[in-house]
Every structure is written in structure tokens, then in C-alpha cells.
Amino acid sequence: xxxxxxxxxxxSRTESYAKLRPNFCAVTSLWSTPIPRQHRSAxxxxxxxxxxxxxxxxxxxxxxxxxxxxxxxxxxxxxSWRIRxxxxxxxxxxxxxxxxxxxxxxGRKILSFSQAxxxxxxxxxxxxxxxxxxxxxxxxxxxxxxxxxxxSSGTLLRERTAAESLIIPVLGGRRVSELSTTSGTVSNxxxxxxxxxx
Length: 198
What we know:
The structure is a single chain. The chain is an alpha+beta fold and 198 residues long. The chain folds into three domains: 1-35; 38-124, Double Stranded RNA Binding Domain; 129-198, no CATH class. It has helices at residues 3-32, 47-50, 113-121, 136-147, 153-171, and strands spanning 60-65, 68-73, 80-87, 90-99, 110-111. It has a five-stranded mixed β-sheet with strand order 1-2-3-4-5, sandwiched between helices. Helix 4 (136-147) runs antiparallel to helix 5 (153-171). It is globular and about 40 Å long.
């Protein structure tokens, strides 16, 4: 005798569940979505902190993801951002832009800490650039990274100093694919471990 009443209650519950289900699914979807990691670095996050760092050639590194780091290299007129990423068996380093130590960030040539982090995470990051598109400066960075495992720090320092004084000022911004040993562009440059630096 209560069949009709029970049927109406069951129908009402079904309708209520149907109304709630979209909201419930949305909430569970949020729960299952990974929360992006908030990147913080006491040494690199603010310009005030960066200006306190001791100048050195090796950047101060902050790991953004496993095998991928953001680096900051102090400079006399403000520092610069770099990316370091493990690609295969080797690490690659690339320049990202100037840090906003002196001028405000513009998101292109001058970057804040958070903007630099986004570039490190970007799918089109410079460490994945084809070898033919590398500049001489970038190719030298790859050379020094690869040589770290088999050369003394003194040898690396001599070669890096030679490159920074003799090669990079002249050819640093040129693409490797544009160079030719027969055109005279690099015919007078011999970069070997025997280079002596006074």
C-alpha cells in the first residue's frame, strides 16, 4: 500500500542526485588535477636578494624540475638568467635574458624570477633548439659543459677566458651554421687546450 509513496520518494532522490552530479564531478575533477608547484628561492626571487650574491662565473642554480634548473649569473650592471637542462647524457646551458636587477621586467629581454621560471618550463625552451640554430656562444657553453667531466678546473678556466676574450666578442652572436672555415670568418681562430692566456 506504500508502493506509490516509495516510488515518489525514489524519483525525487534520483532527480536531486542528477542536479548535484555536475557539481560533484567538477569538485572531484579539481581534486584530481595536480596543483602546480610554487617556485620560490630565497637567493634568486627578489632583486634585493640577488644583489647580495657574490659575483662569479658559475651561475647560482635553482632546480625547477628534475634535470632542469634556472640559473642566475651576477654582473656589474645587473645579472642574467640561464637555463640548464639534462639532454641525453649531457647538460645544456642557454641564456634566457637579463634579470630585472636594474630595469623593470618587460617579459622579453628583461625577465623577473617568475617569468624566467616560466621560460624554463616552456615546451619551446632554448635547450631544445636544433644544433644548427645555435650561436657560437651557445655552442661554447655546450663544449665547456661536456668538458667538465674530463678536464681540470684550471684547463677549463684558461679555455673559457680565451673564448671570452678572443672568440665571443667577435663571433658570439653568430649562428654556427653561418660560419665557414674557408671564408676567412674563423680561419684565424684555433681553439684548443693549448691556448695560453697571460
